[in-house]
Amino acid sequence: MKRTVNSELPKEQAIGRRDFIQQVVGMLAAAEVSLGRMEPANANQAANAAGQSGNHPNTPFVGIQMSPHTMLDEGIEPCLDLIKETAAVNAVFVYSHAFHTSTLGKPLRDLATDHGKPPRDFRNRVPSIWVRHHDEYFRNTRLRVRSTDSELEFADRDLFTEIVEPCRARKMKVYARILEAAGRHIENFDEVRTIDVYGNRGRYACWSHPDYRNFWSAVASDMFGHYDLDGFQWGAERMGPLMNVILPWNDDPPTCFCEHCIARGQAANIDAGRAKEGYTKLFEYVRRLADEREVPAEGVFTIFLRHLIRYPEILSWEYQYRLSREAVHKAMYDAIKAVKPAADVGWHVDHQPSSWDIVYRAEMSYEEMAPYSDFIKLILYHAVLGGRIYSWYLRRFQNTILRELSLRQSLEIYYDLMGYDKNVEPSVEDLRREGFSPDYVYRETKRSVASANGKTKIYAGIGIDVPGSPPEDPEKVYQATLNAFRAGVTGIVVSREYEEMKVPNLCAIGRGVREAAKTSE
Ligand SMILES: [Zn+2]
User: Separation of 281 CA from ligand 1 center, angstroms?
Assistant: First the structure.
């Protein structure tokens, strides 16, 4: 491996950086005091805490999601110091594979400008894959991770080797993080793509395909065989066939009806032909509704229900989809534990399944996922959820099977079904302007902790400065952090990407963490 420039700052600059962090935290604490949100004594404590490299002895698990190029651009050591001293972070979740995107870079308008170094627009300039793979691990699959273009910035760096020592020196753990999606970074991907109800290839891979499952085991096993990783977080932001029909993320026809899924269905005594026919009819019904070609006189929801009654295989097929997805989790879990039993292995549950996909929630509890999950990390981004519920839930459902409800009625039912407090959360008119409250974080966390029933850890993904959010209020960030701990989580993961996070909000997280540590004494 070619090692070039070490981006860590010379010592005198690093000290300047420390002063910078302490200064920023001190200023923020003073502002909190003047707003009457913090006692002066606590403000001094916050500023002092920012100058110390150690956390409170009871500091719980605090991870942070990060893109590798941000850390390399800011410099590994100053970046680690900033997150530790502001947000009390003790674990970094860094992308090893960003399969979900063609470019990890973001436009400047989405990037924080107060990290002590001006952000840069890295779109199409940095790799998506940050580890080296070894062919001998991939004997049981035709799939391979495509090699990285060596012309890209940082392509010659070996981040997961370089960060180990600086993280250990700060008592921080190193997690590799992956988001699955379409196959632009995978060779031979076409062979494992799903088959839709019309017999055409879908955009994603089939969970039941042995080559795809073996590919993920190989990736996981290879990484733990070659890098000193403490943990692993993997996620796939795609929903099952039923939800994608009734709450369509895209207009793709339902999948998967490949030979492997048909065999799985047969083994579970489900008639694949009936499932395919049911999905085709339901899909075409919903498409006609969405295009406003049909408003059935007997009722939109009634006719939706008629499809389920006549084709109960729709529900059975959806459940098999979920089970096949969980089998991929288990394969990775087993592969990692065979190499490093102590590794902390868990799953990213994105915003839709955590907070509005009731089909996902109904299919299984977190306790049922526990045999192959050391942790479940839920997305609980309070501020951006308002806009998401408005556009991605209310409006989409109104275009499909909830045509008969007004947005106000639909929102009210949503709040009641999910157990969120409609007296606290925003009205339809205010959803996008206000976002959700810290109470949402408390209630969803509590429900998830109950679903895990002590059998797996819940990490709350606290979101700050996620693009699309209303302006972030550090006080709400502080409350959301504290609420996650009050509701019983083992830890939090500061989300969604470090490069978006403004220092006042990182400090608000740190305040919440330190408060939680104090109250757990
Ligand atoms: Zn399939």
Answer: 19
Please return the burial class of 315, using the count of CB atoms within 10 Å of its CB with bins 0-12, 13-18 and 19+.
middle
| CATH number of the structural domain 11-519 | 3.20.20.80
Q: What sign does the CA torsion over 396, 401, 407, 411 have?
A: negative
Which residues, 6+ apart, have CB-to-CB distance to 416 below 8 Å? Answer: 422
pTM above 0.85, yes or no: yes
Give dist(CA 81, CA 101) in Å, integer.
Answer: 28
CA of 202 to the centre of ligand 1 (A): 10
Per-residue model confidence as pLDDT tens digits over 210-258: 999 999 999 999 999 999 999 999 999 999 999 999 999 999 999 999 9
Query: What's the CA-to-centroid distance between 211 and ligand 1, angstroms?
Result: 11
In the reported structure, the alpha carbon of residue 256 is separated from the centroid of ligand 1 by a whole-number distance in angstroms of 4
Distance, CA of 246 to CA of 290 (rounded, Å): 10
Crossing angle of helices 300-310 and 272-290, in 10° steps, is 170
The two tokens of residue 160 are 């997961």
Residues with CB under 5 A from ligand 1 (ion): 206, 208, 256, 258, 260-261
Q: How confident is the model at residue 8 (pLDDT cuts 50, 70, 90)?
A: very low
Taking CA atoms, 305 is separated from 22, 253, 278, 301, in Å, by 60, 19, 12, 6
Q: Enter the tokens of residue 405.
A: 């409800």
Measure the CA–CA gap between 143 and 135, rounded to whole angstroms: 10
Tell me, what amino acid is at 335?
A
* Separation of CA 456 and ligand 1 centre (Å): 29
Over its C-alpha atoms, the chain yields an Rg (Å, rounded) of 24
Q: Strand pairing of 61-66 and 491-495? A: parallel
> Token pair of 362, please?
């109904």
357 Cα to the center of ligand 1, angstroms: 22
Q: Please tell me whether the peptide bond between 167 and the residue prior to it is cis, using omega within 30 degrees of 0.
A: no
What are the sequence ranges of the domains in the chain? 11-519
Positive or negative, the CA dihedral 324, 326, 327, 328 is positive
CB 81 within 8 A of CB 13: no
Which pair of structure tokens corresponds to residue 107? 């436009």
Strand 231-236, strand 173-180: pairing: parallel
Q: What is the pLDDT of residues 419-468, one digit of tens each?
A: 999 999 999 999 999 999 999 999 999 999 999 999 999 999 999 999 99
Say if residues 215 and 186 touch (Cβ distance below 8 Å): yes
CA atoms within 13 A on the CB side of 383: 23
- Name the pLDDT band for 392 (thresholds 50, 70, 90): very high
